[in-house]
Amino acid sequence: MNRTFKSIVRKEFLHILRDYQTLIIIFIMPIIMLIMFGYAITLEMRHIEVAVVDHARTPQSRQLLSHLQSSDFFVIKAYDPPESQFESLLQKRQVRCIMVIPADFSLSLTGERFTPVQLLIDASDPNAANFIQNYFQKISALFNAENNPQFKFPFEIVPRFLFNPNLKSEYFFVPGLIAIIVLLISALLTSIAIVREKERGTFEQILVSPVHAYQIILGKVIPYIILGFVDSVIILLIGHFWFQVPVHGSILLLLATLILYLLTGLSFGLFVSTITDSQRTAMLIALLMTILPTILLSGFIFPVPSMPVIFQYISQIIPATHFLKIIRGILLKGIGLWELKAPILY
Predict the structure, then answer these.
(1) What are the tens digits of pLDDT across the range 53-109?
(2) 281, part of any domain
């Protein structure tokens, strides 16, 4: 019986190694997804097109423009366009905002409490408009500190950012991408395990062989556990060395929880494999049932407490919701088993 079980495991390994599509799913697809989404999904805006109108033309106004140009946030696309073209520039998306420096800018800096500078922002994308406003406020705060130090606010908030001092969006999104990709790949791998046997007509031969049902299941799953674990470690290494995501916590705890999470994905894929009759249908169901809920409801992008109450309850069913807390907690905060007991038990 032990030899039969080993034969099933060996047979599944041979199936995988001879199927180039499965090998692509295991080794190529996760790397491409992590690199693509790691760069594409970000909370930052760069190279925002801006038009400037400098009515003052003084050293102070040129210094403000120099601050604007030296930042990574803005690219000046137009200088001193006529006022009649402002609306056209924004409508055609040639620029995202227009800054108008008044003629009395330098005099107002030395003699007035506030120095207004007009900023026209394309708010068709409200999130982008908020980012642009915040970036300009940072530049204006730096400029005021250099040129208008005598005017002080009653108090000043001095923030100290913990766990991600440089506010890199990669630190937030890459661990989330790892959770999504691991769940997706593990579900995809086993979703075609039994269906492939059905399509080839070999599943009936396995059923009439002198083995128990649990041996068939384990023989099918064990190769994918090993390959899925190797795949997960590769993804973690890319996240750490390519995207510079730190690892402040226990590697052993991370790998142990990763195996539990991997088993969850493999179990779901195996369930899909038993209720479908074609590999295409199995892969489609696995994709829809892993990617959409994981991206939208797990807290990967949108905070769970901000969702409607019904979706907050639904999010608790999604494995990635709890693994995101685990992987971000271990990688970024360095927390241990005791602090993570609740999401691990879920």
Answers:
(1) 999 888 888 888 888 888 888 899 999 999 889 888 988 889 999 999 888 888 777
(2) yes
Neighbouring C-alpha atoms within 13 Å toward the C-beta of 173: 19
pLDDT single digits (tens) 59-72? 888 888 888 888 88
Domain boundary among 80, 114, 147: 147
DSSP states along 255-316? HHHHHHHHHHHHHHHHHHHHH-SSHHHHHHHHHHHHHHHHHHHSSSSS-GGGS-HHHHHHHT
Both tokens assigned to 105: 């800018």
The residue segments making up the domain with residue 135 are 48-147
Domain co-membership, 186 together with 87: no
Instruction: Work out how many domains the chain is built from and give that number.
Output: 2
In a shared domain, residues 106 and 188: no
> If you ran DSSP here, which 8-state letter would residue 103 be given?
T
Cβ(133)–Cβ(301) under 8 Å?
Answer: no
Residue 334 has pLDDT above 70, yes or no: yes
